[in-house]
């Protein structure tokens, strides 16, 4: 694993909430704070309800952005493609998600709950505590 990827993955592992930005069918941005989990391949996993705006937005346009951090003057900006999970893949990713967010299990009883993974396309790590500022980028 490259040093940049390791640095970013370690930072993401220390967090369990971030801001997900989606695009409405009219091209307007919408954002929400959500809990998430991650894989060692830097994929992000989250759940939502089919009745929420983010679900309709993602079904219309899979391109999303995500921001993690800020309280330590360190952030990860993340752009990728959201894919709804089904079947064996769903079972695998739910296990990862529930390991990091065990309280989220309570939502799986609802028929409207769905799970997504975000496949990374571009990630930027920025540490504002260093001089000069530490910025690392990965493109996929």
Arithmetic mean pLDDT: 96
The ordered string of helix (H) and strand (E) elements is HEEEEHEEHEE
Number of helices: 3
How many domains, as an integer? 1
CATH class: Mainly Beta
CATH fold-level label: Pnp Oxidase, Chain A
Oligomer: single chain
CATH architecture: Roll
Shape: globular
Counting helices, strands and paired strands, the structural category is: alpha+beta
Largest sheet: 8 strands, antiparallel
* Fraction in beta strands: 35-45%
Radius of gyration: 15 Å
* Spatial separation of the terminal alpha carbons: 14 Å
Count of β-strands: 8
Per CATH, the superfamily is: Electron Transport, Fmn-binding Protein, Chain A
The residue fraction in helices comes out at: 10-25%
Low-confidence parts lasting 5 or more residues at pLDDT below 50? none
Features of the shown structure:
single chain, 140 residues, alpha+beta, Pnp Oxidase, Chain A, 8 strands, 24% helix, globular
What does this structure look like?
The chain is an alpha+beta fold. The protein has one domain: Pnp Oxidase, Chain A, CATH 2.30.110.10. It is built from 3 helices and 8 strands, in the order H-E-E-E-E-H-E-E-H-E-E. Strands 1, 2, 3, 4, 5, 6, 7 and 8 form an 8-stranded antiparallel β-sheet that branches. A hairpin with a 6-residue loop joins strand 7 (113-127) and strand 8. The longest helix has 14 residues, at 87-100. The radius of gyration is 15 Å and the shape is globular. The mean pLDDT is 96.
